[in-house]
Amino acid sequence: MKIPETESAGGLLRIISPQKKDQTDRDLDMSGDQKDIEIPESYARSSTGRPATDLVMSHILESLVDGTMIPGQRVNATQLAEELGVSIVPVREALHFLAGEGVVKLMALKGARISTMNAEEIVDWWHIFLALAEISFEACARAIAKNPQQARRIQKKLDIIAEAEINSTPARFIMTLADFHRLVHSIAEKPVFDDAVRRLQVVFWCSFLPAYVPFEDYGPLFVKHYRLVGEALMRGDYNSAKSNFRYHGNWSSAIIEGARPEPGSPWAESNES
């Protein structure tokens, strides 16, 4: 699978675990190997500051993105520790951290399972995120109006999104869209928006979208809608950006809930009621 390498490989942050050195942390024993773990960049700030724990957490998140872990699956802590070459301690720490994020559920005497989420719950989270996106679009558009050079970053990201839709899996494409919002937050110089994305579990519930959205049919329209939003931001027109994204939110929510509008045909919410 080809992933655009510009701008952090199409919206994914590559975390490379440290090589074995003077190990003061016995929990991090990678036997001299490097393991590349790709996680959504919006989760980069979720670091615990302990390399072995971060490695486990990154592995679980990456496995959700690429489908090797699925909702409801039991997480075998001992097996995971052996697979990653760490002790059981950082595995347990990572599971407790991700439980706080809602990604896993801890069960008394039964370990942990990946959390599940139905279509209605995803749509509810999606609409909460829409409110955050509208606030961030206004801040971004105002920043671009003050410094038009920032518009180039938006254009570059839009090109990456278009390429990802063609060359990436649906899960990777979704993560590229998520990284568009990270860029919006960066241009707006509002890191608090990234904190909100993490707290809203955006990357987690977005990982469910391929099960509900047939991207082979609707992927190009996701690209079109994001391009309309991006072009409005580049003009400094935050009202149009908000309006276009609100349309996209309602349209995509209908698809998540089972509607299948004709691709390329005009859509209105009343069409699916």
Tally of contiguous helical segments: 11
Total strand count, please?
5
What gross morphology would you assign?
Answer: globular
- Total domains: 2
Q: Which parts are unreliable, with pLDDT below 50 for 5 consecutive residues or more?
A: 1-40
Helix percent reads 55-70%
Please give the order of strands in the largest beta sheet: 3-5-4
Distance between the termini: 38 Å
**CATH superfamily label of the largest domain:** GntR ligand-binding domain-like
Q: Helix/strand/pairing class, anyone?
A: mainly alpha
Largest sheet: 3 strands, antiparallel
SSE order: HEEHEHHEEHHHHHHH
Radius of gyration: 19 Å
In what range is the share of β-strand residues? 5-15%
Mean model confidence by pLDDT: 81
CATH fold group of the largest domain: Four Helix Bundle (Hemerythrin (Met), subunit A)
